[in-house]
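User: Predict the complex.
Assistant: Input components as received:
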Amino acid sequence: MSCSDQSGLDAELSAFGRPGGPTVRPVHDQFHGDLLEVSMGPQHPSTHGVFRMVVTLDGEQIVKLKPVFGYLHRNHEKIAENTSYLGSMPYTDRLDYLCSMSTNWAYALAVEKLSGQAVPDRAQYLRIIMAELTRLVNHSCLVGFLFNDLGTSFTPLLYAFREREKILDLFESLSGSRMMCNYQRFGGCRVDPSPEWLAAAQALVDGFPRFLDEYETMLTGNEIMLARTQGVGRLDPAHAVNAGITGPVLRASGVGYDLRKVDGYGFYPRFDFRVPVGEAGDTYDRYMMRILEMRESVKILQQAFRDLPAGPVMDPKAKLRGFRPKAGEAYGRLEGPKGELGFYLISDGSPNPWRYRVRPPSLINLTLLEEMCLGHTIADAVVILGSIDIVLGEVDR
Amino acid sequence: MTLALLLIAFLLLGAAVAAMLSRNLIHSALLLVGAWAGIAAFYLWAGAEFVAFAQVLVYVGAVSMVVLFAVLLTRQGATAAPVEFDSVKRMIGGLITAGGVAGVLLGAILGTPMDVTAAPPPAAISVRQLGAQLMGPHAAALLIVGVILTVALLGAIVIAAVDKPEDPAP
Amino acid sequence: MLGSGILKGLGVTAKNFAGSYHDPARMVTQEYPDTPVKLPEAYRNFPFLVTENATDPMGTLRCVACQICEKECPPQCIYIEKSKDKKPDATGKPQLYPAVFAIDTAVCMSCQLCVEVCPFDAIKMDQIFEVAATNRFAGLLLNREQLAKPNSYFHQLHPTDAAEVDGRLGAERKAAEEKARAAAAAKAAAPKPAAPAVTPAPKPAAGGPTP
Amino acid sequence: MSIMPPEPSPGLDLETAPLLVRDWIVHRFPDALQWFVHHLLSITVILTVFGLFFAFTTIAERKLLARLQNRLGPNRSGLPWFRSLKLWGLTQPFADAIKAITKEDVVPAAADKVLHFLAPVVIVAFSLLGFAVLPFGRHLIPVELDAAILYFFAAGTATELAIFMAGWGSRNKYSLLSAMRALAQLISYELPLILSVVPVILVTGTLSTRDIALAQGGWTWGVLPHWHVFTPWGFAGFLIFLVAALAESNRSPFDLPEAESELIAGHLTEYSGFKYALFFMAEYFGLTALSGLGVTLFLGGWQAPFAILEIIPSYLWFMGKLAGMIVFFIWIRGTLLRLRIDQLTRLSWKFLVPLALLNLGNAAFWALTPGWTGPLALARWAVSAAIVIVPFVLLGRRLTAGYAPRTYRYAA
């Protein structure tokens, strides 16, 4: 391959991903110079769980990246077709094992839309409290793992885990398990939190901004952090929207789309909070989105604790067993920490759903991984993957 | 002290011969580096510390890297290079030239008057005096050597650098 | 100025280093085997069968082998075989009892749905997490005898739930006794009594789920 | 090399106690052997002291990192027979050593056996050589060389050779690539390291570490020590030396080779068991030797910080400062992120080397103007500080052009 082809490839490469550029990825033959194919994963310390990236390297730069997943496929949706509606609820904890509470709520939302089940006010408030606490857990986890990929020796990760453990202890004293809460039911919540629990949660939420400030002073202004993440893994807003990417990754590219504002499900319209939007769409913006969203979640939680109404946590007419929704279909969705998490159910009147489909935000955010990584080095690819925040339980289902 | 001299000489020549005989290119390159270390040991034996450490610093540290990189990047070092003569005429020519060079060297070595008794090592001059000498009478030579090395460096860069476009905007 | 971010970072880690010596919030290690772990009351691991008292566990099992939990369990890890004969339960009514009641703790995921759907409060969640067996199959398949634990143990684990359950069961027993006494009195008062009132059906499952 | 050290002052004080012990041992041997025993003794002392220092650096690193991260760190290992004895994990390094020795030593079939075996040997040998010229105390210097610093860097460069042999010997494509990357890092940071040391040589006028340590003696008003680090050019040189030492010993912000974002664990992929432990030990010896040199050149070697503190023996001051620098390196490791390979080399060639060259000019200016006293001394300090700070700010701004924390707008 003569020198001109080298610049030809670069022209081809830079055109890709820009509007009007070739949408088909340029195929690189092996004889373009010694391309080195490296398979990272599925047992790789920095891929979050069993995820594999087959990366083709031209010297330092990534020329081709093929994500391979499916190692954690557990046939969740087929099993759900042979289990009762209630029986699938504990399985939704195992989808995105970092945020079981908000996944439970998404499933309960879909079933309630299917069966027209009403939910008392106190339960709506409790659901918002649990969802926002889960957002704090997920975002602190992500930020910790991202810094681990960037090369710190576990220090930011352990600070983030210190805060996360406090929230998980709250979940354990409420629902019985730290990560597999199985807390929501169709028509409300399973357990009414005790006043001591609410006081402990209030204390935790009030102390959270102090942790965030400590985190930001330590890392946001760090020169090495700026050099390693700014301009790395740039995502074009138009491409993100076309690929159906949602959540902090989309908002980091400048599209202010947040289901809590768009759908206004649950009692979110009663709360005033803001949705942060980035402008460069690179790894730094995605990191800052999580930090700013955590600050907004703290505001929501404080408002929720302030005007939590009394009353039942479960709708009296809710049926636990022998639950047969009328035939039909429903799609319930909510703004999970990773993006739009949706459940699409088709019922034929029997106690088991006829079709049970999960819209996994992690998998859909993963589709543009290659476009973000082209032209960067392997060290950047690991960081970009970390900034997208995928959990393999949700990607493979 | 002559025992140390003989030991170092034996090691040095052994390393050089092994370097020639070894089939594996990388092994011979490393044995060459061993030979350079032997030369540094000679300087130490002679009491010239500064030159010995300079020799180790320059040769064993840097030039060996250049040699090894050159060997590595040009040809796979591991494969044994074929060593045999193409034709008889070439072999005879090779032997004649080798004999001539050996003769000239031997003549020069035997011709120079070397008093057999090992002269007492001269008083060890301090590095400060060495520096003064270098910066004094030999300053011009030092600067010229510096210029030559810089020119060689720039030449290498010009040859090696493929006209890479300005690295893509981050 | 270049390096100011790095210096601030060093400052934070230094504060944490100093804090780890005096500030309990900055020293999170719990040395587990030495200091026993303090489990919250709602903590749940594998289920266990409640018996009225410890002296005669198989005699006073609350479970009436209605197999609701077997049907509702998502991973299907409960196996029940009904008994042939009947045995009077706490309220004196003859009930079936499980001849075989096995839970495969290798399959069970401690989701406590069985506790929620059980109309007789016969199965509750245990709090043992140090479970080790020498082999994967027989060692983890707990049979009826291994699962049965007395009501006092239930009180020790989940005090508030146990008190609430005992209150409800006590009220039911009192109601059953009054009905029996009323029936006996009515039988004594009018020698040719009508057929005795049908024994109350098991408490309809629709009631609010017990925690 | 004079055999007999300067006659130690009579009377037993801690300062010369080690010398008396050494002389007592040396004189027990016949004259012909005395020269040999004298050096053999200093070698064994260095090996035991710095072997233990290495052992306790590993445990200190793990416990300090733990404390930085709000946790305890290893505190379980005690003595095998005295179960009840509570040792707070002090015997952890010996447990690690036993584990490393007993682990199976796998040599890949296709590996080049000779190189694979020789690499750890060479790297440990050369990283130990550096200790020969460090002045541990007023009288405790193993070898008094006139060109000591040149010797130190000559010994240091050979570790690159060993890394190449390890990378090539493993006959593994990725470890060769990583060895190349490690070499690029070492070579590109060799220059700032040596350039940061040259100002000290220029001002003190000698290459001998003993004279440099002596040159930093004396205190103004009994309180301010004359260490090089308290002069503008010395402080700048010390910072550049620190950054280059971190890069030379593959530590925290520059631990590219064994970073998980690299392909595999660098050139050490094919090593296990005792050979891996040797590489690990060599890294720590290299780090300790470099810190020792840093202490000698910039922090006044074995000089006490205040006049009255002279009573504490000099070798304790040296070891204290050495431990201080190691703790600083561990603190850096617990905080900072890792640099990418291109940023790392850009930092060296476009930032450290220019600053080091300017610092050289700065030291020349300092050396030429000893006579300025009174107000002129202030001017001297101001000029010298300006020569350091102005390029630092300008180059820093150019290096971080386009990188800055951002402010964000909110949608709804």
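Chain B has a mean pLDDT of 82.
Let me know if you want any component modeled separately.
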